[in-house]
Amino acid sequence: MLKIGIRLLFLLLTISGTIEAVCRDTETCIERIKKIVTEPRKFWFAEQHCLNRHAKSFECGGPKQLENFHSIGTRLFRVKTYHSAYLNNLAIFPRVTYRASPGHYEACEHQFFSGNTSAVEVDPDMEPVDPFRIRKRPEISWSDLHFDDQYTIVFTDVGYGTLNYLAVDFPKNTKVLKEYEPTANFRSSPNPIAVIIFRNNGREIEKPKSDEDFDLNSFMLENQLADDLVGLSIIISGSDPFAIGKQKLSGKLDYCHSLLLTKFSHPSSRQNVLQKLPLEEIDSWITVSYEQEHLSANVCCQKVKLPRKRVTLDPLGDLSISALATKLPPTVLSLRMTSNQESNGNYHRQTRNNYVGWSNLLFSLAIVDENHGHLHYLQVDIPAVNLNIEKIGGITKAEYLALIPKKPSSCNSYVFLLFSHSHPMKSLPEFCSSWCDQRRQFKPDLFKQQNNLRLSAFSTVSSCYDLPYAYNVLMHDLKQNRSQEQIGYKRGENVDFFSTVN
Ligand SMILES: *[C@@H]1O[C@H](CO)[C@@H](O)[C@H](O)[C@H]1NC(C)=O
Ligand SMILES: *[C@@H]1O[C@H](CO)[C@@H](O)[C@H](O)[C@H]1NC(C)=O
Predict the structure, then answer these.
(1) What distance separates the 2 farthest-apart alpha carbons in the chain?
(2) Where are the beta strands (DSSP E) in 158-248?
């Protein structure tokens, strides 16, 4: 009983603790909101990224039509100078609460888990919240809201200029004109989302033409809402893999590589090869997949099993694969938009310009041992479009050699490096077709430097000399012994797949 009492007390304390972080009464909250919307450059939207020397244009480019507006107020109303009259009628501070919903999700070929079990109370001074935690429509209420009231609710993403929710006749007879959609803030800077409440003026609200480019000003004009904006709150979102994955799924932007940069930002997380390469140069993601063949056998007293499947590398995790799966060269996919693959998104115009340049670039793929740089594969002069369709189709300068660790029962890491260059590399001399010093002495950083290449993307995997692979070696030996018995010993018949680095 006492225990429950203490727990209750604790619960009450924590609840009051969370409420304390939120502005306390409607008046204070409204004052705070009125102040925040006027603050110039409180949020940097996209401009901040342009100051960074390594910024790619898609990182710094926001919606073109909003690029001159630097405060929430000017951005919302699309005016050069914000006037306090816009929010003269504020009387409501909507309490927006996102219920906790922890869970797993997949993004950028990796499984993520978000385990935070606390609810999110929206407040103009809140800490940026992960987009995953605000992916479901929140509860909205305020102090003197009555069940037979009728308000219009608008959510608009201030950074990206989109309409994220629109409901009318709330709460009496709520009709949703635009289903809730969470922000897809992929940039690391915090991004505000405005929750706007209009009182009912008796007119029927028309759904705006575009969700992608939502202009609050014309929405208010068309629906004669100028005097009816009575409530406002601001959700502040951060970024997370969920938002990055959402952008990628929508086909607009692939920003997954930023997660790799975070993972490998600490020097101790990189082995030799990656330490010597300027990882910050990367501007895209590569999806590397191997076709693993089915295997089912008994080796003395153990079952050896391997399902037939496509194995996609997970450089954000710690995936290990069987060396047996690396028998044949992998397929490589790296999305690059070219001018004829334009999306209709307006703010991607800048992105497009950036990508138009891609179509003239050539790419080279090198697969090396992460520790020593030993060269397993080199393809040069891969056209950009091939990377979009998983077809390497360049010029082979070093034949593929499978990723096999030296010692049985060990694993070894390998790196897949995608370089970009504007000049053809077809005159590069070819490497020997199996292991030789030339391959063992390969240095990716020197190769990059000497050939004036830019690092565009990378991936990694750990490949293991496991039981299935050992079984395969054994079977191979047996087969060779048999054929040697039959046709006599033939020297020099070395099958590349079964040779490891010496
Ligand atoms: C959960 O999120 C809240 C903010 O919404 C934060 O204050 C808290 O530290 C988070 N908890 C964990 C365990 O990350
Ligand atoms: C194949 O023959 C070699 C020598 O001739 C022998 O050492 C090896 O054990 C044989 N392998 C198998 C699997 O029988």
Answers:
(1) 97
(2) 162-171, 175-178, 191-199, 229-237
Q: Under DSSP, is residue 406 helix (H, G, I), strand (E, B) or coil?
A: coil
Using CA positions, which residue lies closest to atom 9 of ligand 1? 116
Closest CA to ligand 2's atom 5: 481
The DSSP annotation for 235-296 comes to EEE---HHHHHHHHHTTS---THHHHHHHT-SGGG--HHHHTS-GGG-----EEEEEEPPEE
- What CATH class does 256-465 carry? alpha beta
pTM: 0.82
The gap from C-alpha 480 to its chain's centroid, in whole angstroms, comes to 48
Residues 46 and 62 sit within 8 Å (Cβ to Cβ): yes
Atom of ligand 1 nearest to the CA of 129: 5
CA distance 321 to 414: 11
> Mean pLDDT, the chain, as a whole number?
85
Compute, in angstroms, the gap from residue 120 CA to the centroid of ligand 1. Answer: 9
pLDDT digits (tens, 9 = 90+) for 208-221: 988 999 999 999 99
* Residue 272: both structure tokens together: 């030799």
How far apart (Å, rounded) are the C-alpha atoms in residues 366 and 332?
11
Q: Given the CA of residue 117, which atom of ligand 1 is nearest to it?
A: 1
For residue 480, the ligand 2 atom closest to its alpha carbon is: 1
Q: How far apart are CA 226 and CA 232, in angstroms?
A: 14
Written as six digits, the tokens of 488 are: 């006599």
Are 23-246 and 256-465 equal in CATH topology?
A: yes
Can you read off the two tokens belonging to residue 143? 């102090």
Q: 24-75 pLDDT, tens per residue?
A: 889 999 999 999 999 887 787 766 556 665 566 666 667 878 888 888 999 9
Residue 492 CA to ligand 2 center (angstroms) comes to 16
* CATH H-level superfamily of 23-246: PEBP-like (3.90.280.10)
Q: Comparing C-alpha atoms, which of 223, 177, 229, 231 is closest to residue 202?
A: 223
Tokens encoding 123: 């407040």
Q: Are 133 and 114 in contact (CB under 8 A)?
A: yes
**Residue extents of the structural domains in the chain:** 23-246, 256-465, 471-501
Residue 478 CB less than 6 A away from ligand 2: yes
- 405 C-alpha to ligand 2 centroid (Å): 21
